Amino acid sequence: MNTYNVNLYYQPKKQNINNDIQEIVSRALLEDLGGNTIDVDNDITSRLLPKDDQVHAQIVTHEDGIFCGKQWVEEIFNQLNSKIILEWHVQDSQNISAKQILCDAIGPSRILVSAERTILNFIQMLSGVATKVNKYVNLLINSNTQLLDTRKTLPGLRTALKYAVVCGGGKNHRQGLYDAFLIKENHITAIGSIGKAIKKASSIMCGIPIEIEVESLNEFMQALEANANIILLDNFNIKNIYQAVKINKKRNKKRVLLEASGNINENNIMQIAETGVDYISVGSLTKHIHSLDFSMKFV
Fold first, then answer.
1. Is 51 a residue of the active site?
2. Is residue 55 a contact partner of residue 107, using CB atoms and an 8 Å limit?
3. Residue 175, helix vs strand vs coil
4. 117 assigned to active site
5. 166 CB contacts (<8 Å, ≥6 apart)?
6. Which residue among the candidates 32, 74, 104, 184 is catalytic per the annotation?
7. What does residue 170 show for φ and ψ, rounded to 5 degrees?
8. Of the listed 75, 116, 149, 234, which one is catalytic?
């Protein structure tokens, strides 16, 4: 077990999430409503409905999965300055089944129809990510390997997507370029060598975990000698991953954490976990998004 106090895996702080939700929801509502301020009267189709009309709506899922996105729905109604009454029947991270009612909403019909698409866009996307992550996590259930996300996220939605990963049972890799070193091929080329890159990282900011990406066993050995904290095995084949794990185990107290990444999917993830790596990172979790099918209907 590595004795280094690695704090690589970022769990979003509540305040960061709340701030991001407010900003993202505001942008999403303005996309639909136009103008410089959020004004439901800008929805010209909703003007067909009586201004004081009160209705009962339900959000329903048409697929099984993991739910995510409650806070985004609540913030949408908060920014629309509405007195919508919400009754939730599910919480983030919970399993949901096809035809299940997720939420009842009672309030002005104009507000509900104007908010419908923004609500569904958020919770379908976030629930889709959480569901996919949960599927991968379940494949790893009998191993000691943890599933990580990456920075391969939709621009502006990183905090939201990383929150969905956690709801699905996965772990977050670094949030951005500021909370951990990840030395890649271009860094190494520009600096001159793996050893020089790791040494310079240590001098820049002491106490921050240093991870380095390697593409061969030769580079792996260089990273070990240079005392990296985490080594990312990029696109290693199974034979070479086993070899790296074997070499690493012989180091005992000097053992580093190993992460496998590159072209990993549900068909080969368990085979890679069986090598004994500590982490597997999968970019497609937040890059190739398949949203769940939800709808909102008046009842």
1. no
2. yes
3. coil
4. yes
5. 11, 12, 172
6. 184
7. -85, 180
8. 234
Taking residue 40's Cβ as centre, other Cβ atoms within 10 Å add up to 19
For 8, residues 6+ apart whose C-beta sits below 8 A from its C-beta are 173, 174, 180, 209, 211, 229, 230
At 68 the pLDDT is: 98
Q: Give 234's contacts (C-beta < 8 A, 6+ positions apart).
A: 213, 214, 215, 261, 262
Token pair listed for 143: 């191993």
Question: Token match 């109604």: residue?
Answer: 77
Would you call 213 a catalytic residue per the annotation? yes
Average pLDDT per 10 consecutive residues for the chain, totaling 299 residues: 44 69 95 92 92 94 98 96 91 98 96 96 98 97 94 93 95 86 94 94 84 96 93 96 95 89 95 96 95 96
Which of 243, 248, 240, 220 has the alpha carbon at shortest distance from 232?
220
Residue 255 among the catalytic residues: no
213, 219, 259, 278: which is the annotated catalytic residue? 213
What are the structure tokens assigned to 152, written together?
A: 């391969």
Task: Choose, from 135, 152, 200, 287, the residue flagged as catalytic.
Answer: 152
> pLDDT at position 274, please?
96
Catalytic residue among 51, 99, 117, 254: 117
